[in-house]
Amino acid sequence: MKSERNWSVLLGAAFLMATSAVGPGFLTQTTVFTQKLGASFGFVILLSILLDIVVQLNVWRVIAVSEKRAQDIANAVFPGLGIFISLLIVLGGFAFNIGNVGGAGLGFQVLLGLSPEVGAIIAAAIAIVIFLVREAGKVMDRFAQVMGVLMILLIIYVAVVSDPPLAEAATKTITPDQIDVMAIITLVGGTVGGYITFAGGHRLLDAGVRGEAALPSVNRSAVSGITIASVIRVFLFLATLGVITKGFVLDDANPPASVFQSAAGSVGYKLFGLVMLAAAVTSIVGSAYTSVTFIRTFHKRIDQNENWFIIGFIAISTLLFVLIGKPVSLLVLAGALNGLILPITLGTILLAAYKTKIIGTYHHPLWLTVFGVIAVLMMAYMGGYTLIQKLPQLFS
Asked: Distance between CA atoms of 308 and 89, rounded to whole angstroms?
């Protein structure tokens, strides 16, 4: 019975991380880059998966061994750093959650013809109900699993119907015609950037999966999370590739919707609404939960009333969406912040991995450190570039 519960927790953490990553931005990024790079986007996906695994293993292992949340690890590395990182995470989480709420509204609009604002309120209510029940953690785990499986099945269906050129996709994944560095960075940031990689790591800690003895389980859960998100990415890539190979032109206003509609007609369009809704609601849950875990250790009242703070986070995000509409400038800034958060947080984790006061006698694998440093440098460069390029647009 205990092993079944343990497996459920590990799988729940993996799905929470994966479904937090698979939001409206994830769906749009995948279709847009496939349209731009064609079959060569397979190489970008492959390389980003390897980087994602390196990032996630570094972060989750150190969290488990130290038995501390990321902000507490950061404060142990340098006093005050945890507060700074928490501020970035929460601000970025708010901005992205507004986009998630908007995506859920779009999903309801496609499915039922509701206005995006009404749809967003209904989606927020669904997310809030999860945190009103007594065992919210278990409900959250199961909800993420069900929605994750639903998304995978629907996207696989559309990929099969679109009949993509599998041989070309396989060949170009190994020998691409072109390599787009920005696409690689965007995919890594969208899968393990900002709050996303901490969603599952903090969930495992809350569920009691901690200590050096738990590392094999932590490794399985971390890799499973990346695998789930990657399966969704790969099949969405194949679905889009099948559509564009047949000469269909994607709608710039909503590229993922046009993929589903081109592949499966009006039924496909409704399926897109369902996928968008599942992706958005699970991302709302993951963003709110993880953002609040970054501030719960700062005050007893937050820790004792965690679920109410999560509900407040969702409610405020929804209110801002309803009042502002499409907060383009806010989302641009959030994207830039996301590019900067990962190198700061991962760099902090790598430093913590070599401080005995944090990890005790644990020895961090050298290969994880080396590839982790490479990921930090890559994301720092591209995050800084994005911030310099995009910030002026906010004030133009």
From this structure: 19
Burial class of residue 212, CB neighbours in 10 A (0-12, 13-18, 19+)? middle
- Give residue 69's domain range: 2-394
Task: Please tell me the distance from the alpha carbon of residue 297 to that of residue 305, in angstroms, as a whole number.
Answer: 12
Q: What is the pTM of this model?
A: 0.87
* Count of domains for the chain: 1
C-alpha 169/C-alpha 237 separation (Å) is 9
Tens of pLDDT along 133-175?
A: 878 778 888 888 888 888 889 889 999 999 999 999 999 999 9
The span from the CA of 89 to the CA of 111, in Å, is: 32
Contacts of 35 (CB under 8 A, 6+ apart): 240, 244, 250, 255
Cα(231)–Cα(124) distance, integer angstroms:
27
d(CA 89, CA 93): 6
d(CA 394, CA 195): 23
Give dist(CA 322, CA 121) in Å, integer: 8
